[in-house]
Design goal:
Uncharacterised_YtzC, mainly alpha, DUF2524 family protein, 93 residues, single chain
Length: 93
């Protein structure tokens, strides 16, 4: 069983990673979707976070799994936003 502290630490660390990703998404949008190294690092950190959530979820109890699942939805949403921003929207015009 996963300890409450380890899940709490994962959620706190995850919130920080999500905040960084949101900052990079905003900066990318202001710079006409130019992706820099910070953007790629934020994307990579989100992917690592998603993998960590999956690992922890395997040993969590039902209540913890529910909490982690909801958090995973938020992480996946940010990952999707970052992936969609990388698509060159001008080629579809």
């Amino acid at each position: 069983m996963t300890t409450r502290d380890s899940i709490e630490n994962l959620l706190i660390e995850g919130q920080h990673i999500i905040q960084q990703a949101e900052e990079q998404l905003g900066q990318s949008n202001r710079n006409h979707f130019v992706m820099n190294e910070d953007y790629r690092n934020a994307h990579l950190e989100l992917e690592k976070l998603a993998q960590s959530i999956n690992r922890v979820m395997n040993s969590a109890n039902a209540q913890q799994r529910d909490q982690l699942h909801r958090f995973q939805l938020v992480v996946n949403e940010k990952l999707n936003d970052m992936i969609l921003d990388q698509i060159d929207v001008t080629k579809f015009e």
